[in-house]
């Protein structure tokens, strides 16, 4: 995890990075597909990008305000926790 403040022209943006390792590439893909459909509810001030590299899900947020960033990251972590608990409860994914 990492957080930093960067300047984009005259704008100051907050950035937060999160990398989540999974036991398999299939589980990482399931998590990505489960978490991707949820766009940010607010139409400005924050962006969230999800990317998959092997077994690792990477998430990058960029926000105008710390409060908006905190709410978005907290909500994402709640959803991620639910996805991981669900995968754990049903066992490893079956190959298709």
From TrEMBL:
Keywords: Cytoplasm, Nucleus, tRNA processing. GO terms for biological process: tRNA processing; tRNA threonylcarbamoyladenosine metabolic process. GO terms for cellular component: cytoplasm; EKC/KEOPS complex; nucleus. Its main location: cytoplasm. It is found in: Cytoplasm; Nucleus. Pfam families: Pcc1 (PF09341). Signal peptide: none annotated. Component of the EKC/KEOPS complex composed of at least GON7, TP53RK, TPRKB, OSGEP and LAGE3; the whole complex dimerizes. Component of the EKC/KEOPS complex that is required for the formation of a threonylcarbamoyl group on adenosine at position 37 (t(6)A37) in tRNAs that read codons beginning with adenine. The complex is probably involved in the transfer of the threonylcarbamoyl moiety of threonylcarbamoyl-AMP (TC-AMP) to the N6 group of A37. LAGE3 functions as a dimerization module for the complex. Belongs to the CTAG/PCC1 family. This is L antigen family member 3. It comes from Onychostoma macrolepis.
């Amino acid at each position: 995890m990492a957080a930093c403040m960067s300047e984009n022209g005259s704008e100051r943006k907050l950035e937060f990075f999160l990398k989540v390792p999974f036991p398999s590439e299939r589980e990482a893909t399931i998590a990505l597909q489960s978490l991707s459909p949820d766009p940010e509810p607010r139409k400005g001030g924050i962006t969230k990008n999800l990317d998959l590299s092997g077994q690792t899900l990477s998430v990058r947020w960029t926000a105008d305000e710390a409060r908006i960033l905190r709410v978005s990251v907290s909500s994402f972590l709640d959803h991620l926790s639910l996805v991981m608990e669900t995968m754990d409860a049903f066992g490893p994914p079956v190959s298709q």
